[in-house]
Amino acid sequence: MARDTAPYELRFDAGRCCLDLLATSHPHEHLDAVAPLCAWITGAGLVPPGTPLGHADPAWPLRFRELRAHIGTLVRAEGDSDPRARARALGRLNELAAAAPPVPRAVRQENGSLARELAGRPECAALLAVVARDAVELLTDPVARAAVRECAGDDCPLVYLDTSRGRRRRWCSSETCGNRERVARHRRRAALARS
Ligand SMILES: [Zn+2]
To answer: Which residue of 28, 41, 73, 151 shows the fewest CB atoms closer than 10 Å?
Structure first.
């Protein structure tokens, strides 16, 4: 199973795994097959590196996308969605969070060091629970909740946790949206200088 996330252009810079999951729908659907989902699961640190996920089936991406939709409803601006949709999303989030997450164990390696492995193969419900629990933590932590920002980039819907000093992070990523903004500003200034 793919362990390298690069071919799928996945991002893990939102500051929380539940927010990283939201990023998988932008700028296009990344969780449209089993392989990119498994790359996401590994990249997001839901399982120790190297954990076999060959048992993942095509229902997994659908289930992760369902959780993603609920997290999106709950995390984005409170006034945006109707209260019934939010109540439904909250109910499902709590159901998904109720499952037991994968059990980690420390295993002695040949060189004597300890490595983290899972006690059994992780089922989809257990992995969904990890992300759902992260969302529960985020939504119920007033300090973290207040640090959730939507990217200031044009047409960029990504949300992230602003943990920068002075809480001045404006973009989901300074390399993508931040850089685009700097280029646009430069162009505007150049155009102004010409006129
Ligand atoms: Zn952005």
So the answer is: 28
pLDDT in tens, 159-189: 999 998 888 899 998 888 988 888 888 888 9
| Full-model pTM | 0.89
Ligand 1 center–CA 186 separation, angstroms: 18
| Alpha carbon of 46 to ligand 1 centroid (Å) | 24
Whole-number Å distance, alpha carbon 149 to ligand 1 midpoint, is 10
